[in-house]
Amino acid sequence: MIRNLLNLFKKESYCQSAWDLCLEMLNESLGMFTDAAESFHNEENLNCDIYNRDRVINKFERKVRRDIVTHLAVSNNPDINSALVLTSIIIDIERIGDYTKNIIELAITHPGRFQGGELSQEIVEIETAVQKMFRDLIPCMENGDVDEARRILGDHQILAGRVEDCLQDLITGKVLATDSGAAVVAALYMRYLKRISAHLKNVASSLVNPYYRIGFREKDQSS
Fold this sequence. Notes:
Layout: H1 2-9, H2 13-41, H3 50-74, H4 80-109, H5 120-143, H6 146-171, H7 180-205
Protein backbone atom coordinates (compact mmCIF):
# COMPACT_ATOMS: atom_id res chain seq x y z
CA MET A 1 0.00 0.00 0.00
CA ILE A 2 2.70 2.47 0.97
CA ARG A 3 4.50 2.00 -2.36
CA ASN A 4 1.41 3.40 -4.09
CA LEU A 5 1.56 6.36 -1.72
CA LEU A 6 5.24 6.99 -2.41
CA ASN A 7 4.66 6.88 -6.18
CA LEU A 8 1.74 9.27 -5.82
CA PHE A 9 3.77 11.74 -3.75
CA LYS A 10 6.34 12.08 -6.52
CA LYS A 11 3.57 13.41 -8.75
CA GLU A 12 1.51 15.54 -6.35
CA SER A 13 3.11 18.41 -4.39
CA TYR A 14 0.29 18.50 -1.83
CA CYS A 15 0.69 14.77 -1.18
CA GLN A 16 4.45 15.17 -0.85
CA SER A 17 3.93 17.94 1.68
CA ALA A 18 1.48 15.79 3.65
CA TRP A 19 3.86 12.82 3.63
CA ASP A 20 6.82 14.92 4.76
CA LEU A 21 4.73 16.25 7.65
CA CYS A 22 3.78 12.72 8.67
CA LEU A 23 7.44 11.77 8.94
CA GLU A 24 8.14 14.98 10.86
CA MET A 25 5.28 14.12 13.22
CA LEU A 26 6.80 10.69 13.84
CA ASN A 27 10.21 12.19 14.62
CA GLU A 28 8.69 14.76 16.97
CA SER A 29 6.63 12.05 18.67
CA LEU A 30 9.78 10.01 19.28
CA GLY A 31 11.44 13.00 20.97
CA MET A 32 8.36 13.63 23.08
CA PHE A 33 8.16 10.01 24.17
CA THR A 34 11.85 9.83 25.04
CA ASP A 35 11.57 12.95 27.21
CA ALA A 36 8.34 11.77 28.83
CA ALA A 37 9.85 8.40 29.74
CA GLU A 38 12.88 10.15 31.24
CA SER A 39 10.59 12.45 33.23
CA PHE A 40 8.68 9.46 34.56
CA HIS A 41 11.84 8.21 36.27
CA ASN A 42 13.37 11.58 37.17
CA GLU A 43 11.15 14.14 38.86
CA GLU A 44 13.70 16.87 38.14
CA ASN A 45 12.98 16.60 34.40
CA LEU A 46 9.22 17.19 34.47
CA ASN A 47 9.45 20.54 32.69
CA CYS A 48 9.96 19.17 29.17
CA ASP A 49 7.28 21.30 27.46
CA ILE A 50 5.21 18.32 26.33
CA TYR A 51 2.02 20.33 26.00
CA ASN A 52 3.45 22.89 23.57
CA ARG A 53 5.09 20.13 21.58
CA ASP A 54 1.81 18.25 21.43
CA ARG A 55 0.17 21.39 20.04
CA VAL A 56 2.79 21.34 17.29
CA ILE A 57 1.80 17.75 16.48
CA ASN A 58 -1.86 18.79 16.34
CA LYS A 59 -0.95 21.68 14.03
CA PHE A 60 0.87 19.25 11.74
CA GLU A 61 -2.18 16.99 11.71
CA ARG A 62 -4.44 19.84 10.60
CA LYS A 63 -1.97 20.80 7.87
CA VAL A 64 -1.83 17.20 6.61
CA ARG A 65 -5.63 17.13 6.47
CA ARG A 66 -5.68 20.39 4.48
CA ASP A 67 -3.13 19.03 2.02
CA ILE A 68 -5.16 15.83 1.58
CA VAL A 69 -8.36 17.76 0.96
CA THR A 70 -6.55 20.04 -1.49
CA HIS A 71 -5.19 17.02 -3.37
CA LEU A 72 -8.67 15.52 -3.63
CA ALA A 73 -10.13 18.84 -4.76
CA VAL A 74 -7.61 19.94 -7.38
CA SER A 75 -6.06 16.74 -8.72
CA ASN A 76 -7.21 15.56 -12.14
CA ASN A 77 -6.95 11.99 -10.90
CA PRO A 78 -7.28 12.00 -7.08
CA ASP A 79 -6.25 8.84 -5.25
CA ILE A 80 -8.96 8.47 -2.63
CA ASN A 81 -7.58 5.23 -1.20
CA SER A 82 -4.15 6.74 -0.58
CA ALA A 83 -5.75 9.79 1.00
CA LEU A 84 -7.65 7.52 3.41
CA VAL A 85 -4.44 5.66 4.31
CA LEU A 86 -2.60 8.90 5.03
CA THR A 87 -5.50 10.14 7.16
CA SER A 88 -5.41 6.92 9.18
CA ILE A 89 -1.66 7.26 9.74
CA ILE A 90 -1.85 10.80 11.13
CA ILE A 91 -4.65 9.85 13.53
CA ASP A 92 -2.44 7.16 15.05
CA ILE A 93 0.51 9.54 15.34
CA GLU A 94 -1.67 12.16 17.04
CA ARG A 95 -2.91 9.57 19.53
CA ILE A 96 0.70 8.80 20.47
CA GLY A 97 1.05 12.42 21.53
CA ASP A 98 -2.01 12.08 23.75
CA TYR A 99 -0.56 9.06 25.55
CA THR A 100 2.75 10.86 25.91
CA LYS A 101 0.90 13.66 27.71
CA ASN A 102 -0.71 11.03 29.93
CA ILE A 103 2.75 9.81 30.95
CA ILE A 104 3.82 13.32 31.95
CA GLU A 105 0.59 13.84 33.89
CA LEU A 106 1.17 10.55 35.69
CA ALA A 107 4.72 11.59 36.55
CA ILE A 108 3.51 14.95 37.88
CA THR A 109 0.75 13.35 39.97
CA HIS A 110 2.98 10.70 41.52
CA PRO A 111 4.86 12.09 44.54
CA GLY A 112 8.61 11.79 44.22
CA ARG A 113 10.62 9.51 41.99
CA PHE A 114 8.73 6.42 40.83
CA GLN A 115 9.93 3.19 42.38
CA GLY A 116 8.82 0.18 40.36
CA GLY A 117 9.92 -2.40 42.86
CA GLU A 118 9.92 -5.88 41.37
CA LEU A 119 8.79 -4.46 38.01
CA SER A 120 11.53 -1.85 37.64
CA GLN A 121 13.67 -3.80 35.19
CA GLU A 122 10.71 -5.01 33.16
CA ILE A 123 9.32 -1.47 32.84
CA VAL A 124 12.68 -0.15 31.60
CA GLU A 125 12.92 -2.97 29.07
CA ILE A 126 9.40 -2.29 27.78
CA GLU A 127 10.24 1.42 27.45
CA THR A 128 13.35 0.51 25.48
CA ALA A 129 11.32 -1.78 23.22
CA VAL A 130 8.87 1.05 22.44
CA GLN A 131 11.75 3.41 21.65
CA LYS A 132 13.21 0.80 19.31
CA MET A 133 9.87 0.47 17.53
CA PHE A 134 9.91 4.25 17.00
CA ARG A 135 13.47 4.27 15.69
CA ASP A 136 12.82 1.34 13.36
CA LEU A 137 9.49 2.65 12.10
CA ILE A 138 10.73 6.02 10.84
CA PRO A 139 13.21 4.70 8.22
CA CYS A 140 10.82 1.83 7.54
CA MET A 141 8.14 4.30 6.46
CA GLU A 142 10.61 6.45 4.55
CA ASN A 143 11.81 3.45 2.53
CA GLY A 144 8.56 1.48 2.27
CA ASP A 145 10.28 -1.52 3.87
CA VAL A 146 7.56 -4.19 4.06
CA ASP A 147 9.73 -6.82 5.77
CA GLU A 148 10.73 -4.36 8.50
CA ALA A 149 7.07 -3.41 8.94
CA ARG A 150 6.18 -7.06 9.51
CA ARG A 151 8.91 -7.31 12.14
CA ILE A 152 7.54 -4.23 13.93
CA LEU A 153 4.09 -5.83 13.99
CA GLY A 154 5.66 -8.87 15.61
CA ASP A 155 7.52 -6.70 18.12
CA HIS A 156 4.22 -5.20 19.24
CA GLN A 157 2.70 -8.61 19.85
CA ILE A 158 5.64 -9.57 22.06
CA LEU A 159 5.51 -6.28 23.96
CA ALA A 160 1.74 -6.52 24.46
CA GLY A 161 2.16 -9.98 25.94
CA ARG A 162 4.82 -8.78 28.36
CA VAL A 163 2.60 -5.92 29.53
CA GLU A 164 -0.36 -8.23 30.08
CA ASP A 165 1.83 -10.62 32.10
CA CYS A 166 2.92 -7.74 34.33
CA LEU A 167 -0.65 -6.53 34.77
CA GLN A 168 -1.73 -10.02 35.74
CA ASP A 169 1.01 -10.12 38.39
CA LEU A 170 -0.20 -6.77 39.71
CA ILE A 171 -3.83 -7.89 39.82
CA THR A 172 -3.00 -11.11 41.65
CA GLY A 173 -0.67 -9.36 44.11
CA LYS A 174 2.48 -11.16 43.02
CA VAL A 175 4.28 -7.81 42.71
CA LEU A 176 3.97 -4.47 44.55
CA ALA A 177 1.42 -6.03 46.89
CA THR A 178 2.39 -3.75 49.77
CA ASP A 179 2.45 -0.50 47.76
CA SER A 180 -0.94 0.15 46.18
CA GLY A 181 0.08 3.59 44.92
CA ALA A 182 3.07 2.25 43.02
CA ALA A 183 0.97 -0.63 41.72
CA VAL A 184 -1.60 1.78 40.24
CA VAL A 185 1.10 3.96 38.67
CA ALA A 186 2.88 0.93 37.20
CA ALA A 187 -0.36 -0.44 35.76
CA LEU A 188 -1.29 2.87 34.14
CA TYR A 189 2.19 3.45 32.78
CA MET A 190 2.44 0.04 31.19
CA ARG A 191 -1.00 0.48 29.64
CA TYR A 192 0.18 3.77 28.12
CA LEU A 193 3.29 2.08 26.78
CA LYS A 194 1.19 -0.70 25.26
CA ARG A 195 -1.15 1.81 23.61
CA ILE A 196 1.77 3.77 22.13
CA SER A 197 3.17 0.51 20.80
CA ALA A 198 -0.24 -0.35 19.33
CA HIS A 199 -0.43 2.96 17.45
CA LEU A 200 3.10 2.44 16.10
CA LYS A 201 1.96 -1.01 14.99
CA ASN A 202 -1.03 0.53 13.25
CA VAL A 203 1.22 2.88 11.29
CA ALA A 204 3.51 0.00 10.32
CA SER A 205 0.51 -2.07 9.20
CA SER A 206 -0.18 0.51 6.47
CA LEU A 207 2.87 -0.91 4.69
CA VAL A 208 1.50 -4.45 4.50
CA ASN A 209 -2.29 -4.04 4.54
CA PRO A 210 -4.91 -2.36 2.36
CA TYR A 211 -6.77 0.55 3.95
CA TYR A 212 -9.62 -1.51 5.40
CA ARG A 213 -7.16 -3.75 7.30
CA ILE A 214 -4.86 -1.06 8.73
CA GLY A 215 -4.39 -1.77 12.43
CA PHE A 216 -5.04 -5.48 12.01
CA ARG A 217 -2.81 -8.45 11.42
CA GLU A 218 -1.73 -9.12 7.88
CA LYS A 219 -4.13 -11.52 6.20
CA ASP A 220 -2.71 -14.96 5.51
CA GLN A 221 -2.37 -15.02 1.74
CA SER A 222 -2.44 -18.82 1.70
CA SER A 223 -5.95 -19.01 3.19
